[in-house]
Design brief:
Distance between the termini: 22 Å
Shape: flat
Number of strands: 0
Radius of gyration: 24 Å
Order of helices and strands: HHHHHHHHHHHHHHHH
Helix content: over 70%
Strand content: under 5%
Length: 379
Amino acid sequence: MIIGLKDTVKLFGISIIACCAVFVCTLFLNYNIDLVAIENEITTEAGVAMYNAQVSMGKVTAVVTGGCLVATSIIMLLFYVKNFIDTHGKELGILKAIGYSNIKIAKHFWVFGFSVLVGCALGVVIAFLYLPNFYEVQNAEGLFPDFDVQFHPLLAFLIVGAPTIVFTAISVLFAYFKLKNPVLNLLREKREYKTKIGKNDKKDLPFLKGLSSTTLKSKKTLVFFVAFSAFCFSAMVQMSLSMNEIASETFAWMILLIGLILAFITLFLSLTSVVKGNTKTIAMMRVFGYEDNICSRAILGAYRPISYIGFAIGTVYQYVLLKLVMTFVFVDIDNMPEYNFDFKALVITLIAFVITYELIMYLYSLNIKKLSVKSIMLE
């Protein structure tokens, strides 16, 4: 079995998330390693306090940001492997029928781990291009002696080689597990459809509510992605707006860009999968006379509450994280302002989120209107 280029291109979302994770981790971990190397040269009291704060900040940022993005990448990887097996069940069933073992087929899924290699390598390259400027920003007050950017092979392996190996192994093992389905199930591409199409009645709320509920229950991974996209938008935008007094402008812009990239990528990927995964349901609703706007509300509208829950969690998360950092990490730094919840940032972010999210939902509802019943049923 050959996994085509078209299938691997779809993994660009994993590559970008891996790139963001490695970019952030490389900045702070590489800086920490080089900073620790000159610890003995820091003699002033202010310098020692700032040294302890920046080392702690680097560890917290790498663990929190890196850990969150790695977890998201794993979930996205498992989603793509499962989706590939679901959509290529006939080909995989034929291979099993002619004698190929599960492990022999699963070994070809190593290419899914290649997307992580591309993303991690790109993240390291971008980080090293930016590191000289990052070092200047971190030492803007001149509390440390000047030191140059050093390349650390072990760190490079831990943030590029190790994740690639782990994600490749996860891809193969998960594919092996999913391929244990009976051959007939694969050949028939057997899936469960619990939704039933009722009569043409706009007041048929039980059916529409049931459809929305079924959509969420059958697409739990997509529920996570929608919530995560709103979480990233809320947390990162509010965090960047709140950093005017407690961090550099460069750091605030970096947080903002990474947050927006993650938010839009995960939202577009999840909503695209939602539309594709419900094309037959949409076609049948049209056959029974349901209008396009009702189809859109039933399918896409089910995710709207999830997105606002994600936004609320992101709001709480960014406040708790910044409060903890200011309370424990920068506690010994003089003239550091006290951090309080920024309601202005919340209002700005919420307005921007509502406008952006509803615009994207509207564009996807137009995409649903363009789906022809004939083309769907011929798939």
